[in-house]
Fold this protein.
Amino acid sequence: MDDPPWRHPDPDAVQRMHQVLGDRKWLILTGAGVSTDSGIPDYRGPESPVRTPMTYQEFVRTAEGRQRYWARAHVGWSRMREARPNATHTALAEMERNGQITGLVTQNVDGLHQRAGHHDVVDLHGRIDRVVCLGCRKVTTRAELHARLAEVNPGYESRVGDVAPDGDVVLAATADFRVAACKDCKGDLKPDVVFFGENVPKDRVELSYALVEQAEAFVVLGSSLQVMSGLRFVRAAHKRGIPVVIVNRGSTRADHLATLKLEAGCAETLASRGGALR
């Protein structure tokens, strides 16, 4: 079977990217398209099925909603924790070490940038490997909660279902799943991520805006920019007049703001001969 076109970026477009960016240092925004090569599906890629993620309001409203979420997430975590950084993650970590980038803001919650060796990452939407209590706000590890859930739900994680983008698995029935509460205050536990319908913490937003103000160029990798949490920073970069380059499979909400848009895979673009990584 032939490789899809995005596996082979247009050499002229890659050269144009090099010309646009020149010797500037980049601020990078990454989205789900960066992690698809690690086996984590995205919501809005060309081959992605329609998904209806749980909202924050659904999660906090009923015990049944939290039960459904944690049952699916418990099965999915066994797969999510096995994901490994791919060529894009390692290339960006190398760029950080070489001083080629001024910052990295990610919309992903998988922690793969850090596992690849990247140090200064703004986790805009939080981290799936952490858990926060909605009562006392204590933060614990997902590994600890997974062990507790496995103890009270023996064999549950072996159930089979389609993997969803947020690391959960689609299950037909979850009514028999037992949810664990906070060990300290018995409050409800939530993954330390920003759900749909929830606001990104103010300090992360302010830090990201500050990075835009310091940037010489803004590069978006693997994001359709359909949600405002990432789009606003592209708008800020465009307003500043610095080059904006978008690399994504499929259209984005900010194509009209881009100095250059490449319809290509992230890893392939970064690794292309004559591209930005030399």
